[in-house]
Amino acid sequence: MPEITVSEGLYRQLSAAEDQVEEDTLWKMLHQFKRQNTPSE
């Protein structure tokens, strides 16, 4: 599995939701977060 780096705040949110959310949903959340917080080229 690839290694990813996330902010401390997002990590806490993902950790808190870990037992309630499927892994697929977490990947979708991460993808959306990165798209919103990465300047477009």
Q: Would you give an account of this structure?
A:
This protein has about 40 residues and is an all-alpha fold. It has helices spanning about 10-15, 25-35. The longest helix has 15 residues, at about 25-35. The radius of gyration is 11 Å and the shape is globular. About 0% of the residues are buried.
Overview in brief:
By secondary structure, the protein is mainly alpha-helical. It contains 2 helices and no strands. The longest helix is centred in the last third of the chain and has 15 residues, at 23-37.
Shape summary: globular
Order of helices and strands: HH
Question: Into which percent range does the helicity of residues fall?
Answer: 55-70%
Largest sheet: none
Query: Rg, please?
Result: 11 Å
Q: What percent strand? A: under 5%
Number of helical regions: 2
- In terms of per-residue confidence, which ranges show pLDDT below 50 for 5 or more consecutive residues? none
Count of strand segments: 0
Integer average pLDDT: 77
Measured distance between first and last alpha carbons: 26 Å
Return the structural class: mainly alpha
